[in-house]
Amino acid sequence: MKRKTITALTFTVAAAVLGTVMLRLPHTADAFAATSKAAVISYLQSISGKSIVSGQHNKEPASSPRQYTQQARDVSGQWPGLWGGDMMFRSPDIAARQTVIDEAKAQWAAGSLVALTWHACSPTVGATCEFDGGVKTSITDAQFEEIVTGGTNLNNVWRSRMAAVVPYLKQLRDAGIPVLWRPFHEMNESWNWWGLRPGANGGARIYQQMRDYFDSQGLDNLIWVWNVQDNPTANWAQYYPGAGYVDVVSLDVWWKGLPSAADYSQLQAIAGTKPIAIAEMGKVPTASLLTSQPRWAYFMLWSEQLLELNTKAEIQTAYADARVLNRGELSIGSGGGTTPPAATTAPPATSATGKLRGEPSNKCVDVAAAGTANGTAVQLWTCDAGGSAQSWTRAADGTVSALGKCLDVIGGATADGTRLQIWDCTAGNPNQQWRYNATARTLTNPATGKCADAVAEATADGTRLQIWTCNGKPNQQWALR
Which residue, of 188, 248, 362, 440, has the greatest Cβ tally within 10 A? Predict the structure, then answer.
């Protein structure tokens, strides 16, 4: 148990240099306003098959509700796109539930999705408990039946436990914060008191009762996440409470390092058109996993397993992958990406066309999968002989474009680590202005004064590009040729 791309031509620097730095566009991509659960569900559906949100869980103590998220930031240079917390079970942690809720509010305000799990104490023990003997415990079939039967002693106890959580969740509702709410996780496992109870009268019933109760309390901000573990037992559908009770279908990956093709297939069959997610895992997803299993909407590393089961290089590579969305790259309500003014019909007049090659890596700047949609990621990739995804045009007005779209700073943000994308070219848009210094070999965005940079000094195919304070390091050196 885990307790837990042409022949190279020489670019010429545009003779006309912008003399005035324009005011920045409003920053729309790295902070979330109050919104509905439907907007988040729609966003997760919109990225399905294209991108995946990075996530990090934070277990007890409740007094340090972002310690593992901070570890992810320290190693990767990026904040996860999803923060995970818990409503807890031990006495000091339940007493500090407000700290968890305050952190959830801060994470949402900063631009990360919010997920909450609940390791609830069994109604057969006290309102607070230790994990072993309280959460990880066995109860009889008769006791479980009493818990889910209205008017019984154990049912009254259980309703009081749920009632105690409602005021905290209402705070998030009142703040307009949707929550990926994952109760009764790993319903096909026997370590917990609610698990390994298949059929309509088993775990599905207690899940349904919680949703009915929380709905009656007006908690319309909860995105209901149903969950099983990748243990050898198949037929996970026998634990499913029904499409009307579930918004996201998720898997915890602990028996295997990464979800198998069979796991992926089974979960999709249950979910239908609903988003699917990896709600807990110990190993960061690999590039090959994201290629072979593209429908995962988010993944969440489990607390201490981030550093215990992964090297720093593995973490950095995962966070730098073009398909992985970190804080600052999510835009709830608009389907992702920045929202600049109305686009021009084509890139402006050109001065030269060729490849943009990273000096230390000898890899080329590439539009991910040669996509042409607004918001498509920009990455490093092995230089090819003549692909259009690596053919960049440097224009006299300072824009750099490929595939008819301009190199763009997501949301017009100024922070180190803000990623680059392609977007409709817009006359005078400071997010799309670039100056090349042939001596230093830097590509700088004048509005921020920051350099185009390969994330975490990585050189692997799929490494994302971002803006970063210019520092002279090799990952900020580019040959325009």
Answer: 248
Q: At the topology level of CATH, where does 37-325 sit?
A: TIM Barrel (3.20.20)
Tell me the residue ranges of DSSP E strands in 81-163.
82-86, 113-117
- How far apart CA 41 and CA 34 sit, in angstroms, is 14
Our CA angle for 79, 84, 85, nearest 5°, is 130
Residue 85 β-bridge partners = 116
Phi, then psi, of 131 in degrees rounded to 5: -65, -55
For the chain, which residues make up each domain, given as ranges? 37-325, 350-480
At 335, is the pLDDT very low, low, confident or very high (cuts 50, 70, 90)? very low
Region class of 216: left (phi > 0), else alpha (psi between -120 and 50), else beta: alpha
Per residue in 385-425, pLDDT (tens digit) is 778 899 998 887 788 999 999 999 987 788 888 899 998 99
Whether 140 and 197 have beta carbons less than 8 Å apart is answered as no
* pTM, rounded to two decimals: 0.72
Domain at 350-480, CATH class: mainly beta
Are the C-beta atoms of 168 and 96 separated by less than 8 Å?
A: no
Report d(CA 279, CA 183) in Å as an integer: 12
Task: Give pLDDT tens digits for 198-240.
Answer: 998 899 999 999 999 999 999 999 999 999 999 988 899 999 9
